[in-house]
């Protein structure tokens, strides 16, 4: 969902976080206010999304160097602080768009595989199908 960081959408977006597999937190590199709002959006995601949902920080409009007010280093520093991957893109010029989605999809896939491995029963677990020897009661 693209809410463009607008305050009026903040309350309705919480419903969309539930069940999300991945979330792109996008700011405009030519708009410092959108960058400053990322921490608030991140907290909102942490509060309302499924625990462990994959996230990536995206700086959009990287092709507008002459209008840039948020440096690549600032974006990377924020991503490091939040503990999420970072990428700059340009939707208009189609720079790194595929990479952003493929990167997030790969992270989601890895998380799902890791989680399914953790859900496998251990070798020392109980196997309900095992027949035990011994004097169990018989009926018939």
Summarize the structure.
By secondary structure, this protein is an alpha/beta fold. The chain has a single domain (7-116), classed as Rossmann fold.
Protein described:
Strand 2, helix 4 and strand 3 form a beta-alpha-beta unit. The radius of gyration is 23 Å and the shape is elongated. The protein has one domain: 3-Layer(aba) Sandwich (Rossmann fold), CATH 3.40.50.300. By secondary structure, it is of the alpha/beta class. The chain starts with 9 loop residues before the first helix and ends in a 21-residue tail after the last helix. It has a 3-stranded parallel β-sheet with strand order 1-2-3, with helices on both faces. The protein contains 5 helices and 3 strands. The longest helix has 23 residues. Helix 1 crosses helix 3. This is GTP-binding protein ypt2. It is found in: Cell membrane. Its main location: membrane. Pfam families: Ras. InterPro entries: P-loop_NTPase, Small_GTP-bd, Small_GTPase, Small_GTPase_Rab.
Count of all domains: 1
Judged by helices, strands and strand pairing, the structural class is alpha/beta
Low-confidence stretches: none
- DSSP helix count? 5
Distance between the termini: 63 Å
For the secondary structure, the number of strands is 3
How much of the residues is beta strand, in percent? 5-15%
- Give the proportion of residues in helices: 40-55%
So what's the CATH class? Alpha Beta
CATH superfamily: P-loop containing nucleotide triphosphate hydrolases
CATH topology: Rossmann fold
Q: Mean of residue pLDDT?
A: 85
Multimerization state? single chain
Radius of gyration from the alpha-carbon trace, in angstroms: 23 Å
Give the topology string: H per helix, E per strand.
HEHHEHEH
Q: Trace the largest sheet across and list its strands.
A: 1-2-3
CATH architecture: 3-Layer(aba) Sandwich
Largest sheet: 3 strands, parallel
Shape: elongated
Subcellular location: Cell membrane
Region (Disordered): 118-140
Main location: membrane
GO molecular function: GTP binding; GTPase activity
């Amino acid at each position: 969902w693209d809410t463009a960081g607008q305050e009026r959408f903040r309350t309705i977006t919480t419903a969309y976080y539930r069940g999300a597999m991945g979330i792109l937190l996008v700011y405009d590199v030519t708009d410092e206010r959108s960058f400053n709002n990322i921490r608030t959006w991140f907290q909102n995601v942490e509060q309302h999304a499924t625990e462990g949902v994959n996230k990536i920080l995206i700086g959009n409009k990287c092709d507008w160097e002459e209008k840039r007010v948020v440096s690549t280093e600032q974006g990377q520093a924020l991503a490091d602080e939040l503990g999420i991957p970072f990428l700059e893109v340009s939707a208009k010029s189609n720079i790194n768009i595929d990479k952003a989605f493929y990167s997030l999809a790969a992270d989601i896939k890895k998380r799902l595989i890791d989680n399914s491995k953790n859900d496998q029963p251990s070798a020392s677990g109980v196997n309900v199908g095992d027949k035990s020897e011994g004097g169990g009661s018989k009926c018939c």
